[in-house]
Amino acid sequence: MSTHSSLQYAAHASLLAILASLAACVAPDKLTPLPPDPDYVWQRSGTLHSDVPMWVGTPYTAERLQAIEDWLPTDAAVHSPYWNLEGRLQLSEGRLETVREELEAGGLDDDEVHNQVMVVRYGFERVRNELGATSVQRSRAEAGLADLDALLGLGRAGVQTVALVLIPRAEWHARAAIPANMKRNNRGWKRITVHHSAMSQPAPLRGPLADSIVAVRDIQSSQMSAREYGDIGYHFLIDPSGRTFQGRLLVYQGAHSGGVNNIQNIGICVIGNFEQERPTPAALLALEALIEELRVQYDIPRTEILPHKKWKNTECPGRYLNSWLSSNYRARP
Predict the structure, then answer these.
(1) How many Å separate Cα 287 from the centre of its chain?
(2) Residue ranges in the chain assigned as alpha helix (H)
(3) pTM metric for this prediction
(4) Looking at per-residue confidence, does 161 or 129 come out higher?
(5) In the 8-state DSSP scheme, what is residue 12?
(6) Are 39 and 56 within 8 A, CB to CB?
(7) What CATH number is associated with residue 255?
(8) Is 113 in the same domain as 232?
(9) Structural domain harbouring 186
(10) Is the pLDDT confidence value at 199 over 90?
């Protein structure tokens, strides 16, 4: 082989070695995974993958937040857990900014602030506590909770020891309220009345969220259809697993204690029949956490935490729950 040919061969061999080395560097199994970033996935692919929600890549506006809110209780079920958490997280981040802007503009009264803050906190806490959340998602949720506390002027003392798990109206598919059939509350809140639903607690109600949603929707449907209420009569409902459902908004008087007794009176219904059986520990923990948050928010004295039987001749909220109220809040009939 000539010297020239030898040099050509060596050059070709070197080039092939370099190309082989480069190929090894970019082999799919050698790539370092990118951190989760939904907008990056959308931009990189150029088209929306079947698992990527349609709201990804759209401008970050109120319309996008509404699209996410509509997506969560409907189409989210066919997407991966990652996107479900990402949707909740982005919705909570957007809602936090909305609360911030409206507070700065003075556009919210105390009840509206409380409603929105509870929903925002629920969203961040759900992502933070979800085992399937990525470290990035969990960090964003923690940052959101810190921002929320800072916005409300809460220090460490403002952090709850028992976190409320609040299910927003949109998530339990609440029927649209009829404002014309309700009275606005313009006088603050002075008391809380506790009820039971008086329905039995079938075993499934102690587990899946879907079964509790059915129970809450049944209560709303019965009250709006049979009694012609403008909405579900209670402001909050609690299931045996300790999940708290957002009921009638606090900008409206409830429909739970009869006529004028509803004035400045927040209604809480614990699902179950507590004349027959005891409330679950989870339900009682959630009830206490909710009562304490409302007491602090509206400066309600402990002696104004009342059983339904205070207002009418009824066994509600049942002997077992009434006993708990009497022991914890001295709310004797």
Answers:
(1) 16
(2) 3-25, 38-45, 62-71, 81-105, 110-129, 135-151, 209-226, 281-298, 319-329
(3) 0.62
(4) 129
(5) H
(6) yes
(7) 3.40.80.10
(8) no
(9) 166-170+178-329
(10) no
